[in-house]
Write a structure and sequence with these properties.
Length: about 130
């Protein structure tokens, strides 16, 4: 049974209609995805928890946060620049023993208002994927 439709207008082709067969309700979303945790310079050296979304406040100072040490394939961490200060006060995401996009290097967040998702690939050579 369809719950509704969405019309998609494109410049190249005629309008398309997509049927929505199922809806995700707020009650269906795990609590870790429905909420955001806030971290700031007072949390310097914190180890991030897998499958958690973080609002990152670096408005007072730069700091470092560590990725989970033993992630499994598909686990993720979302980081969002809450105050728009990454360019002024960059935040370092330490690899914590796992590659980031195939590199044995930390990741520096230095673009204001950036929102970043790191997903663990399950492959030790690739490590964390970045979106």
């Amino acid at each position: 049974m369809a719950f509704g439709t969405v019309e998609v207008d494109t410049l190249v082709t005629s309008t398309k209609t997509l049927t929505i067969d199922d809806l995700t309700l707020a009650a269906d979303i795990p609590e870790s995805l429905a909420t955001w945790s806030t971290i700031n310079d007072l949390d310097n050296g914190i180890t991030l928890t897998a499958n958690v979304r973080y609002l990152v406040d670096s408005s007072a100072a730069s700091f470092t946060a560590n990725l989970p040490a033993s992630p499994t394939a598909g686990q993720f961490v979302v980081l969002a620049d809450k105050e728009g200060c990454f360019a002024t006060y960059p935040v370092t995401i330490a690899q914590n023993g796992n590659n980031i996009v195939g590199q044995a290097a930390d990741l520096v967040l230095n673009v204001d208002r950036a929102v970043l998702t790191l997903t663990y690939s399950g492959d030790a050579t690739t490590g964390w994927l970045v979106k």
